[in-house]
Write a structure and sequence with these properties.
By secondary structure, the chain is α+β, with helices and mostly antiparallel strands. The chain has a single domain, classed as Peptide Deformylase (Alpha-Beta Complex), CATH 3.90.45. It has four helices and eight strands; from the N terminus they run αββαβββββαβα. The chain has a five-stranded antiparallel sheet with strand order 1-2-3-6-7. Strands 4-5-8 form a three-stranded antiparallel sheet. The two termini are about 20 Å apart. The chain binds zinc ion.
Length: about 180
Amino acid sequence: MAIRNILHDDDPLLLKKSRPVTEFNERLHTLLDDMRETLLQANGVGLAAPQVGVLRRVVLVVDTNRKDENGEELPPEEAMIELINPEIVAASGEQVGPEGCLSIPGVYGIVKRPDLVKVRAFDRYGKPFEAWGTGLTARAFCHEIDHLNGVLFTSLAEKILTPEELEEMYGGGDEEEEEEA
Ligand code: ZN
């Protein structure tokens, strides 16, 4: 496994549409393993393949709704979902809140998203499955799937937060509290 370089917003690859995965082979597994390590190191809630320069429809999302048998939040490495060729099949409700991106470090904007999102995708072996998320997980599903279509959150944001507003919202820019995908 290797940590891959995360592209930043001036990179034209981030504005391109990714192609579907057709072969669920070793190469895909290496990409997924590398993305997993890259996301853990970056401490984000999601990562899309185009963010590491691969224009394929592959994303990782940390499902913060997932709990262990005692109702405790799982560590990110256990809560991570791999989604190949993901599609949103249902969405409901609405949430309006701050959103960030590992490809646009330090920038946060207010983005409206559905509050509950159901996705259909394939796992790394080509087996179809469905997943759903609420709150931050729903936001991450939308954000990552947007990446596959070359859409960055800054183009959807109602407002980009100023450093002062950011500080107010996150209480002095505590890195732990900020969520980037
Ligand atoms: Zn992002």
